[in-house]
Each structure stands twice: as C-alpha cells, then as structure tokens.
TrEMBL record:
Belongs to the myoviridae tail sheath protein family. It comes from the Bacteria. Residues 273-401 form the Tail sheath protein subtilisin-like domain. InterPro entries: Phage_sheath_subtilisin, Tail_sheath_C, Tail_sheath_structural. PANTHER family: PHAGE TAIL SHEATH PROTEIN, PTHR35861. This is Phage tail sheath family protein. Residues 189-217 are annotated as: Disordered. Residues 208-217 have a biased composition (Acidic residues). Residues 410-513 form the Tail sheath protein C-terminal domain.
C-alpha cells in the first residue's frame, strides 16, 4: 500500500516478507474409546497423565480393558490422549437439591456413595455477598454445596468440591451455571424457587454400571434408526476433537475381545481424520487363524488398511487389582506408548520397532514366537511382539495391513505411512491462509517458499533419504501445476513429493573365511 506523502522527509512503512512459518502438528495424540467406571459419555476428554485419567475416569477397573490400555500407554512413554467413554444400559445417579434435580456426571455406580451437604451462610456475611452479586439476589437466596465422594467418610475427609454462595435465582452464581464447572455433577434445567434447606442429601435414584458395550454402543444400530455419526456419539464422538493421530479400541473387558465389526468403522474414521489405527486380534487367536483374521473376520481390506497395523500377541503383566497376579492384556495401549516414545526421541519417520522399542511393564507374551513363526506373519503384513534374552519384550514389526509382500503397496511400512499422514495434516492446516488470496505468481511463490522451508527443516533432521534436498523432496506450485483453467475455477495446485526412509527389516551379513589367497 502506498504512503501518502505530504511533507518533505523520510517515510517508513513495513513491507510483509511473504514468508509464513509452518510448524508440524503433533504426531502421537492417542484416542481411546471404551468402557470406564465414571466420566462423561460420548465426549472426547483430553488427559495428560495417568493420574489425570484416574481423576476423570476412575482408573483401573476389573470390568473394562480401557484403564489397562491407558496405563500401558503412559508406562511406555505416551503424553497426550483423548478418552471417549461408552456404556451399555447404564443408569445415572440423581440427587434432589431443593426443587432441582442434579445428576452425576456420567452413569455408573461410582456416584452411589456420594453425599451432598447444604449449608447457609451467616446473615451478616450473606448480606454482604448478596450485595456484591447485585440484581435480585438477596441474603436468603445464598447457600453452599459441599460434595463428598463417600458418605461414610464425611467426618474424616474434606469435600472433593465446594460451591460457595450459589443461588436458585438468576445471578452470577446461579446453581446450574456454577455446576457446569463441576467434575462430578450437573443440574438439569433452570432452577426456580427458594434455596434448599440445610442438611445432607443422598442419591434419590442410584446409578448402575450396565453391561459390557457391544458394537451398537460404539457405532449405533442402523436397524434401530441410530445415526451415531450425525449425533457424534460413541466412536464418532472423536468428530468433536480437533486432532488425534493414533486410535486405540481396548476390549470391553480385560480378557475379552472387541466386536470384530468395529474395525471397519474405526479404519474408515482414521482415513477421514488422517490417523492411524492399532488393531488387537482376539486373545484366543492362533497363529494360523491370525493369517486370515484381518481380511475375513475383521473385514479389513482395501486402501483403508494403509492406516492400520495389527500387533500380535497380547502382553503379559501383573494386574494391580488382583494382587499382582500375571494376566494377558491387549497390546494396543502399550504399542501406542512405544510409538509416542519413538516419535519424541527419534521422529515420526523412525519405525517404532526394534531393540529400542521395549514394552515397559510386560513380563512376557501370551504366545512366545519363534523366528520361523515370525517369518510366517511378517510377509503377510502382521507385526509381532517378541521376547529376547536381556532385551525383554519388544515390538518386532513395522508393517501396515497393506504391507503384505504380495500387495507391493507404496505404504508398506508404518513409518512411511505415518510420515505421509503427518505431512498431509501439517500442510492442510498451514496453507489455510491461502484461501481467497489472489491466485497468481506471488501466491505460488509464497507457498513454495513456506512449504520448501518446512521440508528443508525435516530433511536436516533426517526425515528423508537422499544426499541433497533435490534428491530428498520437491515442492511445485507454478504455471505447470496451476493452469489458466484451474485459475478460472479458483483452484491452486501444490505438489509435494518426498523420498521416505524405509526401515532395514533384514540385515544380511556376509561371512567369508580369510585364506592366504584373499588376504591381500
């Protein structure tokens, strides 16, 4: 933009450089969908640690495999996770606070021991607080609600939540609005009437945990008219999340199996969201059954399986809820943690497998595999967990479900596919600024410059193969990629190519005996 010059002198104006920095997206945000003891239903809740999961969802539970999977995730190096709770025929506990019905935040028997205690402030203090709230709030409208998790320990423990100076009338501390910040309770409807009397309140109706979820509790039952995708429930609650990279579906019970029909819906979700699915075969699957299980029983096939990988067998580790007795658990949570740990230490382009990919917490595997058995599964695109002396249990495979030798797919390897997904998501988010910009050479140059700088940074980190940037990647956005016909339709075309690093699956060492003839 030109400067209006009115007097003799020097004029300063800032000129945009046209350079827009691209920052790579996260690579190991892991979504878990399963049964929990407590917590909201059908909401992707972000957590950052195992204690966070314990606070929000109740921790380990004998009736569910979710807690064990999340715990394995954090034991093995996981960081950020999203948890979606599903339930079947579970009931929610309710409390009557005056004329207002208050529900526990999510169904389950966890809320049955809770106790709510109502108290009134002293008249002098109440008058001062009511004046500060303004409006129609009076001193006789104020009350305090204390929440105790266990009615039998109410005299020995402090309340887990205290809501001070709330009211049933409209004002800044209206009861239902204040409870929106609670991690335990929600008010139904808008409160009216007088404040509740002082005293203790126990559940008016008790909650129940229900049964283990079935397929329709994750994706809905079309025959019943359910449309979970539109309602964003179950598995499709992840539609509310901004970003996730890995998807784990723990079995409904620790020793159980996920309904096989869910894997197809989960794989489709991952394709749509540029995420990667970690698949657990059934616990009782034999070696011969596993060879055909993904395509037959689970129904996984076609290009969507580029975004999925199977890991076999299950891991064995002590169960804290059973006095440390060793039991078998699905491996997906631990594998997701290994992937997150590898991303943090080496990068998304490094295969999450090998001697560095140890499974922390595992004392063994449900099916110890030999080299020969491993050799039967690997060419079929099925990844193994192995136990080696000194090293312990490790992830010993890095192929997608399109990684069978017979398919010869370009996304045969997990790190290659995940690097492509990382680039797609990053460039999708970082080129939004170009929408509605003038579609001509200055825009093309800016796009080439920004994307080229990002790719060059990845090249320096060792993400691509090649001795020079020319051999490692290219970025094209010019008259050849965007023709006048494209311009007339409002389209700008960017082509980004990269030479991926592929893992060294087979290390072949040639041994030759040295003799006098070849010693020179």
């Amino acid at each position: 933009m030109s400067v209006l010059t009115t007097y003799p002198g020097v004029y300063i104006r800032e000129i945009p450089s046209g350079s827009r920095t691209i920052t790579g997206v996260a690579t190991s945000i892991t979504a878990f969908v399963g049964r929990a003891q407590r917590g909201e239903l059908d909401e992707p809740v972000p957590i950052g640690s195992w204690p966070d999961f314990e606070r929000r969802f109740g921790g380990l539970w004998r009736e569910s495999g979710l807690g064990y999977a999340v715990r394995d995730f954090y034991l093995n190096g996981g960081s950020t996770a999203l948890v979606v709770r599903v339930a079947r025929d579970a009931a929610t506990a309710t409390f009557e606070v005056g004329e207002v019905t208050v529900e526990a935040l999510g169904p389950g028997s966890w809320a049955n021991p809770m106790l709510l205690r109502v108290s009134h402030p002293s008249p002098g203090d109440a008058a001062e607080v009511a004046a500060g709230q303004g409006g129609d709030v009076t001193a006789t409208d104020l009350f305090t609600l204390e929440v105790y998790e266990d009615a039998e320990k109410v005299d020995d423990e402090a309340p887990v939540e205290t809501h001070l100076n709330v009211t049933m009338v409209d004002g800044p501390r209206r009861f239902d609005l204040v409870l929106q910040s609670s991690r335990l309770l929600r008010a139904t409807g808008v409160p009216t009437g007088a404040r509740p009397d002082t005293g203790d309140i126990t559940p008016a109706t008790e909650g129940s945990d229900g049964d283990a979820p079935e397929a329709e509790d994750y994706v809905g039952d079309p025959a019943a008219g359910d449309d979970f995708a539109a309602d964003k429930r179950g598995l499709y609650a992840l539609s509310k999340a901004d970003l996730f990279n890995l998807l784990v579906l723990p079995p409904p019970t620790p020793a159980g199996d996920l309904p096989v029909g869910l894997w197809v819906d989960a794989a489709a979700m991952c394709v749509d969201r540029r995420a990667f699915l970690i698949v657990d075969p059934p616990g009782a699957t034999t070696l011969d059954q596993l060879k055909t299980w993904p395509a037959t029983s689970a129904g996984l096939g076609g290009p969507a399986t580029r975004n999925a990988a199977v890991y076999f067998p299950r891991i064995r580790r002590p169960d804290p809820l059973r006095g440390g007795a060793v039991a078998d658990f699905a491996a997906s949570g631990a594998v997701a943690g290994v992937i997150a740990r590898t991303d943090a230490t080496r990068g998304v382009w490094k295969a999450p497998a090998g001697t560095d990919a140890s499974v922390v917490g595992a004392v063994g595997l449900s099916v110890p595999l030999t080299d020969a058995e491993n050799g039967q599964l690997n060419p079929l695109g099925l990844n193994c967990l192995r136990t080696f002396r000194v090293i312990g249990s490790v992830v010993w495979g890095a192929r997608t479900l399109r990684g069978a030798d017979a398919l010869a797919d370009e996304y045969k390897y997990v790190p290659v596919r995940r690097l492509a997904l990382f680039l797609e998501e990053t460039l999708y988010r970082s080129t939004q600024w170009a929408v509605f910009e003038p579609n001509d050479r200055p825009l093309w140059s800016q796009l080439r410059s920004s994307i080229g700088a990002f790719m060059q940074d990845l090249f320096r980190q060792g993400a691509f193969q090649g001795a020079s940037p020319r051999e490692a990647y290219f970025v094209r956005c010019d008259e050849e990629t965007t023709t006048q016909y494209d311009i007339d339709r409002g389209i700008v075309n960017i082509i980004v190519g990269f030479a991926p690093l592929k893992p060294a699956e087979f290390v072949v060492v040639g041994i030759q005996q040295k003799t006098a003839q070849n010693s020179a």
